[in-house]
Design a protein that fits this description.
The chain is an alpha+beta fold. Helices cover 26% and strands 47% of the residues. It has a 22-stranded antiparallel β-sheet that branches. The chain crosses the membrane at residues 6-24.
Length: 424
C-alpha cells in the first residue's frame, strides 16, 4: 500500500511531461507553419499567403491559410485543424479554390465546393515519414472544347516521403469514364503509384526552391532535365476496364502492370503485366508477361537527352558515341523471362528468351557499323504453337510446323534459325 503514493506521483510526472511535450509540440507546429508561410512569401511574389484566425490549444490548434495571386485571379481559403502529437502533427483542412471568380469544384459539378486535404507531418527537418492526401467525394466532371468529357468518381491523391527518403505518389479513383467522340473508356477501382528515389527527391527540392526565388526560362529547363533524370518505379492496377469504339469493344478484368528498377547481374528495369480475363468478340482470354530491360541502355539515352537540355540544345555526339561503344562491349540484353497466353479458342502458349546487342570486340561506333550483322544474338522458345499462327509460320518458311509443336528461334551472325533450319 505504501507504494501507491509513489506510483500515483510517478504517473502524475509522466502525465505532466506528456502534456508539457504536447504544448511544446503544438508551439513547434505553429512555429513551423509560420516559417513555411514566411518562406513562401519571401521566395516568390506571385502569390501572397496569410495565416489568420490562430487559436492555440493543448491538443488541437486552428488557423486559416488565405492565399491570393498578384492579379487577384486565384484565391485559396484553407481552414486548418492541427492535432498535436509527441513526434508528429496531423492536419485537416477543407480547401476552397476560386479561379477568376468561380469555384473550381463547382465548375467540376462536385457535390462539395471544397476538397479535403489531410497531412501527417513528422517533427523533423527533411519530411521523412510525412504524408499528404487530397481527396473529394462524389463525381468530378471535366469537359473539353470538342464535347469530350471525363468523369472521375472519388479521386484520391496521396504524396508520401518514406523513411528512406523516396517519394511515393499514389492516385486512386473509384471509377472513371472518358468520352471522346466515338470512343468510351470506363474503369472501376483504378490505383496507380509512382516512386522516385531519395537522390531524385533532393534534386527536386533544390530546383523547387530555386524556382520560387526567380522566375525564368531556366526554371522550366531545370524541371524538364529533372523529369528526364530518372524513370520512376510504376505500379498500376485496374479492377475493370471497358473500351468501346463504335461497334467494337473489349473488356479487361483484374489487370496489373509494374515497371520496377532492380539489381540483377546488371541494373535492370523489370516489367511485369497480367490480365486475368479479357473479353473480346464474346471470347475469354488471359495472359501474363515478365520482361527485363538492361537499365544502362535507357540511362544512356536519357543521359543524352538530359545533356542536351543542360547545355541549351548542344549535343556532344563524340561523347555519346564513346559511351555507346563502351556499353556495346558489355552486350546489354533484353530478357523475356516468361510469357503466357490462353483463351476459349487458344491453347496455353508459353515463351521465353533473350536478345543481346554488341560484343567485346567493339571499340568504336565504326567497329559497330562494320560488325553490324554480328551485333545481334539471342533465342526465343515458343511452346504449344497455336493453329492461328501456322499461316504466319508457313509464310516465314516453317512449312512442317503443326499446331501444338514447339519452335526455337535463334539469332546468330546475322542469321535467323528456327528448329535448326536457317530462315534467312
Amino acid at each position: 500500500m505504501r507504494k501507491t503514493p509513489a506510483i500515483i506521483a510517478g504517473l502524475a510526472i509522466v502525465g505532466a511531461a506528456y502534456l508539457g511535450t504536447l504544448y511544446v509540440s503544438g508551439n513547434k507546429a505553429m512555429a513551423r507553419l509560420h516559417q513555411w508561410v514566411d518562406d513562401a512569401n519571401a521566395y516568390q511574389s506571385k502569390v501572397h499567403i496569410d495565416l489568420q484566425d490562430e487559436k492555440k490549444g493543448l491538443f488541437t490548434s486552428t488557423a486559416t491559410i488565405v492565399a491570393v495571386d498578384a492579379q487577384g485571379k486565384v484565391n485559396i481559403d484553407a481552414p486548418l485543424s492541427l492535432h498535436h502529437g509527441l513526434f508528429s502533427t496531423d492536419i485537416d483542412s477543407r480547401v476552397a479554390l476560386v479561379v477568376n471568380g468561380q469555384n473550381v469544384m463547382t465548375l467540376a459539378q462536385a457535390s462539395d465546393d471544397r476538397f479535403l486535404v489531410q497531412a501527417h507531418v513528422k517533427h523533423n527537418d527533411d519530411g521523412r515519414g510525412s504524408e499528404m492526401r487530397v481527396s473529394t467525394q462524389g463525381v468530378l466532371v471535366l469537359s473539353g472544347r470538342d464535347g469530350d468529357e471525363l468523369r472521375v468518381e472519388q479521386p484520391d491523391l496521396s504524396i508520401c516521403r518514406a523513411n528512406d527518403g523516396s517519394l511515393i505518389i499514389r492516385i486512386h479513383e473509384a471509377a472513371y469514364q472518358s468520352f471522346q467522340q466515338t470512343m468510351v473508356v470506363a474503369a472501376v477501382d483504378v490505383t496507380n503509384s509512382i516512386v522516385y528515389d531519395n537522390a531524385w527527391v533532393e534534386r527536386a527540392i533544390s530546383i523547387i526552391k530555386d524556382s520560387l526565388k526567380r522566375d525564368s526560362e531556366e526554371n522550366a529547363k531545370s524541371i524538364a532535365v529533372l523529369m528526364l533524370s530518372q524513370i520512376p518505379d510504376i505500379r498500376s492496377q485496374i479492377k475493370k476496364l471497358n473500351i468501346k469504339d463504335g461497334q467494337l469493344g473489349i473488356n479487361l478484368n483484374d489487370a496489373k502492370l509494374a515497371w520496377i528498377s532492380e539489381q540483377d547481374t546488371t541494373p535492370v528495369y523489370h516489367l511485369t503485366a497480367s490480365v486475368q480475363d479479357v473479353i473480346a468478340v464474346n471470347k475469354h482470354y488471359k495472359g501474363a508477361i515478365s520482361l527485363k530491360v538492361d537499365r544502362r541502355v535507357s540511362d544512356l539515352f536519357m543521359g543524352a537527352v538530359r545533356s542536351v537540355g543542360e547545355s541549351s540544345g548542344h549535343f556532344n555526339q563524340a561523347e555519346y558515341e564513346r559511351k555507346l561503344a563502351a556499353l556495346l562491349q558489355e552486350s546489354p540484353r533484353l530478357t523475356l523471362e516468361s510469357f503466357s497466353l490462353s483463351g476459349d479458342d487458344l491453347p496455353s502458349v508459353t515463351a521465353d528468351g533473350y536478345v543481346s546487342v554488341g560484343n567485346a570486340n567493339i571499340k568504336s561506333i565504326d567497329d559497330a557499323n562494320k560488325q553490324l550483322p554480328d551485333l545481334l544474338a539471342g533465342q526465343l522458345e515458343v511452346r504449344n504453337v497455336p493453329a492461328q499462327a501456322l499461316g504466319l509460320a508457313a509464310y516465314a518458311g516453317l512449312y512442317n510446323l503443326k499446331a501444338g509443336d514447339d519452335v526455337k528461334f535463334e539469332i546468330s551472325k546475322g542469321h535467323l534459325i528456327a528448329n535448326g533450319t536457317p530462315l534467312f
